[in-house]
C-alpha cells in the first residue's frame, strides 16, 4: 500500500520552519522600527534623537532572537500552543538580555536607552505572538504543511487525543489511517481509513512512507507494547504513545532516566505548594485586578441601574461560597434572578420532569430558567453578572483564575476532591468556565477544577484569561 502526500516529507519538514523564521524576522524588524519610532517621537519632546546602524537593525539583533527561538525548538517541535507561548516568552527575554549585554560590551550605547529596551521588548514579544498565532491559524485552517501520521489504536483514548489535536493550534497532524484489531470507536473507522491490524503494523508503516506514528492504546500489555514499538521503530522518525497515566497531574512533570537500569522516573511538581508561586499569583491578581476594577467602574454603575429598574430588589446578590481550606466567604455578584427564585424553581421543577432531570445532572437549567430576569439573561450571556467578583479578587477571597466558587451545600457532591480544590482560592474564571460551562456536568466541573489545582502554572492562568475574553465577546456556553 502506498499512501504518499503531495509535498515530499523532506521539503515539508524544511518549509514549515523556514516560514516561521521569515515571519519571526519580520515581526522582530517591525518591533525595532516601532520602538525607534516611538523613541524618536519622545526624543522630539526632549530634543534628542538616535541613529541605529543597519547591521544591528537588519541582521544582528534579529539573528540573536531567531537563534534563541530555534534553541527553544519553537520552529520544529509540535506541542500544545500553551507550551509554545511559554517558550517564546523565555526565548525573547533571553535574546533581549543577550542583545543588551552584547551592545554594552561593543560600546553601542546608542541602543542601550532604557525606554527603547522596554518598548522593543514588549513589541517584539507581542509581534512574535501575533504573527505566530496568525500563521498557525492559517496553516491549520488551510491544511498546509500538515504532518502525516498513522494512528495505532481506535478507542476512546484515540478520540480524546484527536479532539485535542483538532482544537490546539500547536498540532498540525493529518491522520492518513488507523491500525486496530478491534476498533472500539464508532466514528474513527468512518472518518479514517482502517489500514490493518497490529500484527502487520510494521509492514503497513514501512509501505506508507509515514515517518510519525501515534500509539493510543494505554491499556496494552507491557510486552505487547514493547514488541510493537520495536517492530515499527526502524521505519519511522518519531513514535508518540500515550502511557497508562491518564488523569495523573502531568503538566509540571519532568522525566528522568536511569540509563544503567533502563528506568524512567517522573518528577511531579506541586506548584501551588511553593510559597513563591502563591505570592506571584497573588501579585498578579492585585495588579491586573486593580486595573480592571478601575476601568469597569462605569460599567458596574450602568448594570446596577438596569437591574434596579428591571425588577424589585437589590442590584447585588451576595452569597456564601466555599473558599480556601473549605472556609466560606461572601461572593459578590449582580442579581440576575428574581428575589423569590427558590420558590419559582421549586414549582417549575415539580411541573417539568425533564427540567428536574437536567437539574440533577448539571445543577443548572441550561436553556430556560424561570428564575432569571430580563436583564439577568443578558448579563449572564456575557458573564457580566460576575464582574463584582473583582472586589473579591482584590480582597484575596478569590483569584482571577481558579476553581469554581462552589456552594456550601455542594460539599457532599464534591466528595473526596474537596481537599484538593480548596488548596487555593476559587476563581472568577477557570478551566470549566472556558470549556463548555453549562454544557459540562457537575462531575465534569469537579474533575476540571481538580486538574487545574494539580497542574497550576501562570501560563495556564494566562491561557484561561485569554479564552475567557473570547467567550465573553461571543457569549458561547453562557448560562
Automatic annotation (TrEMBL):
Pfam families: Bac_transf, CoA_binding_3. Keywords: Membrane, Transferase, Transmembrane, Transmembrane helix. GO terms for biological process: polysaccharide biosynthetic process. The chain crosses the membrane at residues 14-36, 56-76, 88-105, 111-130, 283-305. GO terms for cellular component: plasma membrane. It comes from Selenomonas timonae. Gene3D superfamilies: NAD(P)-binding Rossmann-like Domain. Belongs to the bacterial sugar transferase family. This is Undecaprenyl-phosphate galactose phosphotransferase WbaP. NCBIfam families: EPS_sugtrans, WbaP_sugtrans. PANTHER family: COLANIC BIOSYNTHESIS UDP-GLUCOSE LIPID CARRIER TRANSFERASE, SLL5057 PROTEIN.
Amino acid at each position: 500500500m502506498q499512501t504518499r502526500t503531495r509535498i515530499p516529507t523532506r521539503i515539508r519538514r524544511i518549509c514549515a520552519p523556514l516560514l516561521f523564521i521569515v515571519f519571526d524576522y519580520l515581526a522582530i524588524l517591525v518591533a525595532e522600527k516601532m520602538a525607534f519610532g516611538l523613541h524618536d517621537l519622545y526624543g522630539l519632546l526632549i530634543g534628542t534623537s538616535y541613529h541605529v546602524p543597519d547591521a544591528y537593525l537588519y541582521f544582528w539583533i534579529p539573528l540573536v532572537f531567531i537563534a534563541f527561538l530555534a534553541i527553544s525548538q519553537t520552529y520544529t517541535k509540535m506541542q500544545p500552543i500553551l507550551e509554545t507561548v511559554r517558550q517564546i516568552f523565555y526565548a525573547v527575554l533571553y535574546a533581549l538580555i543577550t542583545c543588551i549585554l552584547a551592545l554594552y560590551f561593543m560600546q553601542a550605547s546608542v541602543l542601550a536607552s532604557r525606554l527603547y529596551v522596554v518598548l522593543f521588548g514588549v513589541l517584539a514579544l507581542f509581534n512574535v505572538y501575533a504573527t505566530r498565532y496568525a500563521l498557525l491559524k492559517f496553516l491549520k485552517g488551510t491544511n498546509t504543511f500538515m504532518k502525516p501520521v498513522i494512528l495505532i489504536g481506535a478507542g476512546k483514548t484515540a478520540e480524546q487525543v484527536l479532539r485535542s489535536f483538532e482544537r490546539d493550534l500547536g498540532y498540525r497532524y493529518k491522520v492518513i489511517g488507523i491500525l486496530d484489531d478491534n476498533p472500539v470507536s464508532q466514528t474513527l473507522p468512518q472518518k479514517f481509513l482502517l489500514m490493518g491490524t497490529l500484527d502487520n503494523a510494521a509492514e503497513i508503516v514501512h509501505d506508507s512512507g509515514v515517518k510519525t506514528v501515534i500509539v493510543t492504546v494505554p491499556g496494552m500489555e507491557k510486552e505487547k507494547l514493547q514488541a510493537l514499538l520495536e517492530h515499527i521503530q526502524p521505519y519511522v522518525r518519531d513514535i508518540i504513545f500515550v502511557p497508562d497515566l491518564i488523569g495523573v497531574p502531568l503538566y509540571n512533570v519532568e522525566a528522568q532516566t536511569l540509563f544503567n537500569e533502563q528506568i524512567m522516573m517522573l518528577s511531579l511538581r506541586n506548584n501551588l505548594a511553593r510559597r513563591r508561586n502563591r505570592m506571584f499569583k497573588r501579585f498578579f491578581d492585585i495588579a491586573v485586578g486593580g486595573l480592571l476594577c478601575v476601568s469597569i467602574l462605569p460599567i458596574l454603575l450602568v448594570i446596577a441601574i438596569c437591574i434596579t429598574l428591571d425588577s424589585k430588589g437589590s442590584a447585588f446578590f451576595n452569597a456564601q461560597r466555599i473558599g480556601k481550606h473549605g472556609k466560606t466567604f461572601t461572593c459578590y455578584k449582580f442579581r440576575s434572578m428574581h428575589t423569590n427564585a427558590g420558590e419559582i424553581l421549586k414549582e417549575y421543577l415539580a411541573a417539568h420532569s425533564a427540567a428536574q432531570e437536567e437539574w440533577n445532572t448539571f445543577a443548572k437549567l441550561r436553556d430556560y430558567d424561570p428564575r432569571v430576569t430580563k436583564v439577568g439573561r443578558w448579563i449572564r450571556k456575557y458573564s457580566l453578572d460576575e464582574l463584582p467578583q473583582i472586589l473579591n479578587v482584590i480582597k484575596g477571597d478569590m483569584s482571577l483564575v481558579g476553581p469554581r466558587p462552589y456552594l456550601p451545600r455542594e460539599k457532599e457532591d464534591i466528595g473526596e476532591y474537596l481537599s484538593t480544590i480548596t488548596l487555593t482560592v476559587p476563581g472568577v474564571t477557570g478551566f470549566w468556565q472556558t470549556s463548555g460551562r453549562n454544557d459540562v456536568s457537575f462531575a465534569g466541573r469537579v474533575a476540571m477544577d481538580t486538574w487545574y489545582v494539580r497542574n497550576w502554572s501562570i501560563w495556564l492562568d494566562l491561557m484561561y484569561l485569554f479564552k475567557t475574553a473570547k467567550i465573553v465577546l461571543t457569549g458561547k456556553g453562557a448560562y
